[in-house]
Amino acid sequence: MSERCTEALFLTDVASHRMTVVHDHGVHRHLHFAKPGTGCMHFDLITWPGYLAYSGDMGCFVFSRLHDMLEFFRSKPEGKHGLHINQSYWSEKLQAHDRHGGHLQYNAKSFREWVVYQCREIRHNMTRAEFRGFSQEVRDEVLSVEDDGDHAAHRALFDFSHNGRCFRDSWEADFMEYTFRFTWCCYALSWGIAQYDASKRSEAA
To answer: Do 131 and 116 form a contact (C-beta atoms < 8 A)?
Structure first.
């Protein structure tokens, strides 16, 4: 998917969803979320001691950190409104992810933007003629692989040299982004747990 997943897009997807509590005993829970009468954009949150599994239309992801994983995903910065997600921190707790697509993917646009920025920095130390030759070689040897994936992109940067000029520390450059599926999953975790907590408060009232 090329479209970025936003909170607004996610909330549109689940606007008609309802929660069904399949099982709820201590930290052993099975919560099902779906629009009544359809399985479109459905998902399940299943917890057991030390783990939480998300599964549904956006794949399957398993996390582990605390005895009760709902506590882990509930935390949010003071004063934060809306759905709180922390893709960087939460992804560190992944134990398994969907075989059809993990939590990260290569972004060719980020690669091109990084190369263009580096070229502009290098240009300050070159004549116009030197830069023409340099930029042509960059197009031929580096930007020509921008659609070939992260490994090919870093390999091209590492191998590149033009009259002694190269892309220094290129292995530190990050051209990865979180996948649509994983981002949607993160919003689903935040939103789904909020629905569950609201139902528990209603029961206690």
So the answer is: no
